[in-house]
Amino acid sequence: MGSMRERYGEILSERALELIERLHGEFNGRRLELLERRRARVEEIAAGGSLGFLPETAAVREDPSWRVAEPAPGLVDRRVEITGPTDRKMTINALNSGAKVWLADHEDANTPLWENVIGGQLNLLDAITRKIDFSSDAGKRYELKDDLATIVVRPRGWHLPEKHLLVDGEQTSGSLVDFALYLVACGQLQLDRGQGPYFYLPKMESHLEARLWNDVFLAAQEFLGMPRGTIRATVLIETFPAAFEMEEILSELREHSAGLNAGRWDFMFSVIKTYRTRGKDFQLPDRNSVTMTVPFMRAYTELLVRTCHKRGAHAIGGMAAFIPSKDPAVNEQAFAKVEADKKREAGDGFDGSWVAHPGMVETCRAVFDEVLGSRPNQLDKLREDVHVTADQLLDVASTPGEVTEAGLRNNVSVAIQYLAAWLEGTGAVGIFNLMEDAATAEISRSQIWQWRHNGVVLDTGLAVTTDLVTRIAEEEIAKLGDDPERYAEARSTFLEVANADDYIDFLTIPAYDQMP
Length: 516
What we know:
Layout: H1 14-46, H2 58-62, E1 80-85, H3 88-96, E2 101-105, H4 114-128, E3 133-135, E4 141-143, E5 150-154, E6 161-167, E7 170-173, H5 174-192, E8 198-201, H6 207-224, E9 232-237, H7 246-252, E10 257-262, H8 265-274, H9 295-310, E11 315-320, H10 328-348, E12 352-355, H11 361-372, H12 390-393, H13 405-423, E13 429-431, E14 434-436, H14 438-453, H15 466-480, H16 488-498, H17 510-513
Helix pairs in contact: 1-5, 1-6, 4-5, 6-7, 8-14, 10-11, 13-14, 13-15, 13-16
């Protein structure tokens, strides 16, 4: 087990460790089988197969009678949600932000250092018991207000291990560890406050993975003596395969379901990862030009709202990653884009949306206030006009835009800057006025790999080659003005995955395994 520090025993209690051991013994085999199933599907697609709506689950989609559970306390009105890591300062700022929900992130916005894994759980416990405060180096003091956001914890995805906790010599699942530690330490406390243990579930690729989560919930509730349905979960539809199984995912989690969320960067990354061998039909242009209104993204978000409201589930919109700037001109342009994006979502029927910074909460809230008024949501907006086909979801080729040198440079710079911060222990990083997390690094390096693999020629006439990517990496690091040594490991890690002959899973690189 990882090292024990002051107060770690409050999280790593005998009861929590017993639950982790039980969940590992009962479910880790299935988890590994499902991960192998993911790999097999990619191989099938490489051999000429494709994604589509599953014929074997047609009865689930065609049955009009079933619905998910009624919204749980604290999750009825979700018009604005804020996301962020569980460090002490962010915990206070997010809960005080005025958002209805805080996605307390143990996944993309968190580096899985042992001190982050356990320290974040302690911060959540202290917040729930109102024992949390923070003082900055400048002497500014942070304390909780009276009106706080509802906490929804995002554990790590099924693919991520937790190397600091072993059961019978095997690494445990990061998903099960994050889930069990929070449930044992804070689940009953949340129930006593009139809410409950709520979760955001990331990176799922099939309804069978949702079924696994549901079985985990049932086992954990029984172990702790909690009634069935106490746990609620919102699923992030942020992988390409999951977009074809949204109704099935809701059905599997039925009594525990709290809705679905529409991602962006991870969804785009998944398109590349899933169809990486299929050439330019699934090639994306500069990432900042792929908006939620391009045909395949539009089909996906429209279908998500229709699916959710058909089954009585909340539909939560995507991220506004902008960080307010000291430059008024930058702010004016960015706030206008965020407002337009949120107006599209509210008009489409989403019940709420995400922001990454407290300074954007009011902009998002104002848009949804205008549409919702005093109503807590728009679950009654059924969107029966929406009829999305598999071909529309797969129509990546119609995405407008080009691949530019500026876009390549942006991807290189952002990926290296983020990786440097990640290796130093920070999982959410402000870069070029945007809050970036692990999804950014994934889409950035995946696009570069795809462009190089497909022999793309940029707007400047240069072909994307290994030599060009390496040269641009050196030039972009030089522009940062910091000590180049700070970026040495990030540079080598980035070039290893971006310039590889075959697509490399980030988890296989030494930098991940060597994380303390």
